[in-house]
Every structure is written in structure tokens, then in C-alpha cells.
Amino acid sequence: MNLLMSALALSATLTSSVLAAPSPRAPAGAELPPPAIPSAPPVSRGYATVNGLRIYYEVYGPPDGGTPIVLLHGGDPAIETSWAEILPVLARTHRVIAFDQQGHGRTPDADRPFTFEGSADDTSALLAYLHVAKADLMGFSNGASIAMQVAIRHPQLVRRLVLVSGMARRGDLRPEFWEGMRKATLKDMPPGLAEAYRKVAPHPEQLPSFFQKSVDRMLGFQDWPDAAVRSISAPALVMIGDADVVRPEGAVELVNRLPHARLAILPLTDHEGMITTRAGWLIPMVEAFLDGDVG
């Protein structure tokens, strides 16, 4: 069960006119859903029609919050299942953009598989829609892998990277993770995540498809070439827990391949704890990295 939870979880600013504008009108016959995190209402939200998707996004924080931070959720179902603890704190002083990826949360699925490369291209298209020329990217689990692919495929968009419990090689993850993935069935999905999907998905009956495409993305993953990882020029902060599904050795190897990277290993912390119980430890380090000088 815990392995499956880990698997599923696996310099220009926004122009004032875009960020302060009212939310775009939803398609005829549809209304915007409630905000992802009601306690931290966004200043703008809507749907972006890009790459054959209708991507649901939310923008938070002050207009003078510097380089926007793009939050990329994990394999879990939606914005709030990854960022409920972290987003409201970052949005106090930073411009923050969060969105539901293809087939996750409030963004309808499309007739294509879930891939890290595809999600990276969707991220790039959304930033173009929002007129964002450069951003800081923070990803958790699968979102960290997506952030790296954005930096590989669209390097001009990325100022800095925060990579929380992500992978670039199969060997970055513990062997028992892959054993659990090969045996995973829908009944193994944690009830809380299944309910989160059904609560906000435009087609909740597609939960089995969501689950299978999530599993297929992981089982079909192939190691990225070292040259691709080494091409990432943006400074990066790699973060894992000491009891994470990501092996400490894998995190060290990733840092050694990234040209400009720092490493933080949080003690007494598992995969989900990185964004929940240890959010209070993680946030100050993230802000120091994003707002300070990077040597």
C-alpha cells in the first residue's frame, strides 16, 4: 500500500494584465470548479486550451512576488493532493502557478499515454498561454521528473529547479517499488486518493483508466541518457527523505550528473512526508534556494 502511494505520488514575471485578469470563461454549459485549496483562494484561475488539452490552472500570490514558481504535482490525482501544505505558504510572498496535469484533477484526459515528456511539453504550452517567459519549477515525485524534462526540452523557460523525490533512472528508486508496481491493481489504490480523484475529475468513471495509465507510465520508464541530464543548466535543489522511495545513492548520483545542484536529505522522512509532515522543514530550504544567491 505504501509503495503504491509512493508510485502514484511518484527573469520575467507574469504580466500584470494576465495575473490580475478575471478567470477565463469556462466552456459553454460548464462552470469553473471550486478552488483546489479553499483556504488559499487563487487570484486567477481557468482553463487553457493547449496541446489538445483543457488544462485547469490556478495562480496565487502577490503581483510583485518575483519569478513565478510553477508547482508540478506527483502521480497523485490533483493540485491539492500534493500541495495543500506547501502552496499556501509559498503564495504569501511568491507568485505561484499550479495546474492539474493531463487526466488528473480537473483537467480532462486525452487519447494519449501519460509521459514525462508529454507533461513537460504541456507545461511549456501552459506557460506560453500565461505569457510567462521564465519560471522556477518545483516538482514532487513524478512532478520532479517532469520539471527535469522541462529543463531538458525547454531550457529557456527555467531559472531554478526544486526536485523533490524525483528520478531520472530506474535505479534511483528502491527495487521493492518496481516489485509493487508490477503487481498493482486498482483495489490497491489508497481510498483517499481514489476519493480525491472522483471528487474533482470531470469524468470520475475514468478512475480505472487513470490508474492504469499511471502504472503504465512507471513500468514503461526508460533511463534518461546522462547527456540529457547533464544538459540541464539551471541550478537545482535535489531533496529526498532518508526513508524515501528514492534511494539516497540515487539522489547523490543525480546531483553529481546535474551541473549546478545541491542536495538535501531530510531525516526521519518518507516519500509522502516530504510534502506533509516535513513541509515545515522543506519550505525554508526551498525559499532560501529560490531567493538567495546560488554558488
Structural summary, described in words:
The protein is of the alpha/beta class and 295 residues long. It has a single domain, classed as Rossmann fold (3-Layer(aba) Sandwich). Helices cover 37% and strands 18% of the residues. Strands 1-2-4-3-5-6-7-8 form an 8-stranded mixed beta sheet, sandwiched between helices. Strand 5, helix 6 and strand 6 form a beta-alpha-beta unit. The protein is globular and about 45 Å long. It starts with a helix and ends with a helix. The N terminus is likely disordered.
TL;DR of this structure?
Helix content is 37%, strand content 18%. The radius of gyration is 18 Å and the shape is globular. It has one domain: Alpha/Beta hydrolase fold, catalytic domain (Rossmann fold).
CATH 2nd-level architecture: 3-Layer(aba) Sandwich
Q: How many DSSP E strands? A: 8
Q: What is the chain-wise order of helices and strands?
A: HHEEEHHEHEHEHHHHEHEH
Supply the helix-strand structural class: alpha/beta
Mean pLDDT: 91
- Number of discrete domains: 1
The fourth-level CATH homologous superfamily is Alpha/Beta hydrolase fold, catalytic domain
Helix share, percent: 25-40%
Overall geometry comes to globular
Residues in β-strands, percent: 15-25%
Number of helices: 12
* Low-confidence residue ranges: 1-5, 8-29
The CATH class designation is: Alpha Beta
Any idea what the radius of gyration is? Answer: 18 Å
Query: How many strands, which pairing sense, and closed or not: the largest β-sheet?
Result: 8 strands, mixed
* Amino-to-carboxy terminus distance: 40 Å
Please give the order of strands in the largest beta sheet.
1-2-4-3-5-6-7-8
CATH level 3 topology: Rossmann fold
